[in-house]
Amino acid sequence: MEDINTVEIIGYFASIMVAISLMMKNIIWLRWLNFVGCTLFVIYGVFISAWPVAGMNAFVAGINIYHLIKIYRAKANPTAA
């Protein structure tokens, strides 16, 4: 059996994180875990020169951060919502 390299491990872990994130009922946990998974997919995509994978996951990671900022700002200032 061939050894699994570090890049493959990053890819598998990214897949697991995204899959787990989609099972979350709490939107904050979903966004954080999905962000971690997307970030790992960006790293994976860059290492294997799969620019569509890296680009799309960077975009989704940005969307997650945008929504997390909105959520945390709404919690910090509940009268502004």
Could you characterize what this model shows?
This protein is mainly alpha-helical. The chain has one domain. Helix content is about 80%, strand content about 0%. The chain contains three helices and no strands. The chain is elongated and about 55 Å long. The mean pLDDT is about 95. Keywords: Membrane, Transmembrane, Transmembrane helix. It comes from Shewanella morhuae.
Secondary structure topology:
Blueprint lengths: L5 H16 L5 H21 L3 H26 L5
Helix pairs in contact: 1-2, 2-3
How far do the termini sit from each other? 56 Å
**What is the approximate shape?**
elongated
Q: What integer is the average pLDDT? A: 94
Which oligomerization state do the chains in this entry correspond to? single chain
SSE order, one letter for each helix or strand: HHH
Sheet with the most strands?
Answer: none
Backbone structural class: mainly alpha
- Helix percent reads over 70%
Please tally the helical runs, counting DSSP H or I stretches of 4 or more residues: 3
Strand content: under 5%
* Count of domains: 1
Quantity of strands, as a count: 0
Low-confidence stretches: none
Radius of gyration: 15 Å
